[in-house]
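Format notes (please read before filing issues)

Several people have asked whether sequences and structure tokens are stored in separate files. They are not. Every record keeps both together, in the order shown below: the sequence lines, then the token lines. Line labels are part of the format and must not be stripped during preprocessing.
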Amino acid sequence: MPVLDYLTSGYVIRSSVHARPRNEPSADGEPGLVYATSDTRMMGTHAHGQCPVHIEGARRTYIKFNSPWTIRTPKGYSCLFYQPFYDDLAAPRLRLFPAIVDTDTYDKPVNFPGYFLGTEEVEVRPGDALMGVFPFKRNAWEADIVVEPPRQSVFDHFLQGAYRRVFWRQKSYK
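Then the structure lines:
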């Protein structure tokens, strides 16, 4: 049931463009990225110098999917943006960066930067899932971590599926 909740909670932002990006180093060996797209306003790049870190052992030029949507949440809420799991969008060669945005105060579209592995062209079609969005309430709290010994009980069989039977509740997001 926890996986079902993950799959059915939050929202998915889908690509509004058809794009075919690929890594293509410049003549002097600097990382580079080129792309063809159905709408140049919806895509862009960031040079390595804007985020000069090595990712997976290499310098990168970053691609950016520009979102046409502004996400607004009630006061005290933020959104976690993440690349959806269990989705085949150019996987595993397209990596979009996860982020948390205070969408109660930020009133602009949230764009999605990332990078590609390899040099082969990747195709992103309109409607492909780009980012999952999970709104959450910000509040201060402290965690207590307790390590308990493993259970070796005759009730283990009964406890299988107990989360679903006893604790889980159907959710509805509108």
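For reference, the curators noted about this record: The chain is about 10% helix and 30% strand. The beta strands are 11-14, 19-23, 33-37, 43-46, 62-65, 77-82, 94-96, 99-101, 112-116, 129-137.
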